[in-house]
Amino acid sequence: MRWILLGPPGAGKGTQAKRLVERLGVPQLSTGDMLRRHEAEGTPLGREAKGYMDRGALVPDAVLIGMMRERVQAADCTRGYILDGFPRTPAQAEALGALLKELGTPLDGALSLEVPEAVLVRRLGGRWTCRSCEAMYHATDHPPQVAGRCDRCGGTLYQRADDGEETVRRRLQVYREQTEPLIGYYERAGLLRRVEGTGTPEEIFRRLCRVMEAAPAGPAWSS
Hints:
8 strands, 9 helices, Rossmann fold
């Protein structure tokens, strides 16, 4: 089971990826985790990536694909994986496709969480974070028991700069311009599966499971 999870900021990719890997028993792969590991271990790819990041430059696709090549061949990926946050562009998608074709392990599909922009702005614009333990809350969906205080540790809650409405709308615009073309790329490849991303996390998860089960070679679970 090799799937990509796509969707704009606030679509709930992180929440659903966590549920899917638990259900499938496969790892969740993210380039952020790979970059941190390679940097911590001082690997050649990690040192090369660090050089770019220290200059404030983007890590080249070739370096990311090099890390991905190693990761997808690890023992815990034998039964598959969920890709979250990669690829981000059609060029990365092409490079990933070429890599997986070379390895004989093509993708099963790309899941696109579809959420109206107004819902995304409400979700992201209502987020609050604990300064002490970084627990997350939401003004309407998951409010704290005491306004402005963390339920877990009692710390002060604050709203990050990138969770303000104006910033949220800019983030969504960047997504549309840079990452949304992936939707068209995987649709043309016949791999795209659109999933409604509104409702409770449980409802969205059930939809994802049904879509994956209906795909060729999909998991034979009971939803």
